């Protein structure tokens, strides 16, 4: 049914739990897995006139976030490999994680976006915002939302 599934992760415990469920789902479908970590764009400190010497350069920031993103992707990619799935990982940069997830799903010809949800409702959802809700409203692709009722152990 699905050939290529994008699994989005932010490195949180909820996201790792969701990614494991996504790999299992992909295995059931016999689908390829693309794991995506979206890091924020580099921000220049606009609140000071002179950039402090300890503030990372844009190049240092990009290298560091590639490393951090790779660390978040690694266990998910290892799980996909152990499951015998074709897999790849990508660290992307964007100010809007939701829009970048949608764009990557389109660019990489993914059939499905697999994401998590904390299961918050009411004011918690409104105040915190939700990347998942934004993805749902910005894509024409199917989105499978893995909802957690209870926070997983770290």
UniProtKB/TrEMBL annotation:
Residues 1-145 form the UspA domain. InterPro entries: Rossmann-like_a/b/a_fold, Universal_stress_UspA, UspA. It holds the Pfam family Usp. SUPFAM superfamilies: Adenine nucleotide alpha hydrolases-like. Signal peptide: none annotated. CDD domains: USP-like. Belongs to the universal stress protein A family. This is Universal stress protein. It comes from Massilia polaris. The lineage of its organism: Bacteria, Pseudomonadati, Pseudomonadota, Betaproteobacteria, Burkholderiales.
């Amino acid at each position: 049914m699905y050939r290529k599934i994008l699994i989005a992760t932010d490195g949180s415990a909820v996201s790792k739990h969701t990614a494991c469920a996504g790999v299992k789902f992909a295995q059931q479908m016999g689908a390829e897995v693309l794991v995506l970590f979206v890091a924020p764009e580099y921000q220049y400190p606009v609140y000071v006139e002179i950039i402090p010497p300890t503030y990372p350069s844009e190049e240092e920031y990009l290298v560091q976030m590639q490393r951090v993103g790779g660390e978040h992707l690694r266990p998910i990619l290892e799980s996909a490999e152990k499951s015998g799935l074709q897999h790849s990982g990508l660290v992307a940069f964007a100010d809007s994680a939701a829009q970048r997830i949608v764009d990557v799903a389109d660019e990489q010809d993914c059939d499905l976006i697999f994401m998590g949800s904390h299961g918050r409702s009411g004011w918690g959802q409104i105040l915190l915002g939700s990347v998942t809700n934004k993805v749902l409203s910005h894509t024409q692709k199917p989105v499978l939302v893995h909802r957690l009722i209870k926070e997983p152990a770290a």
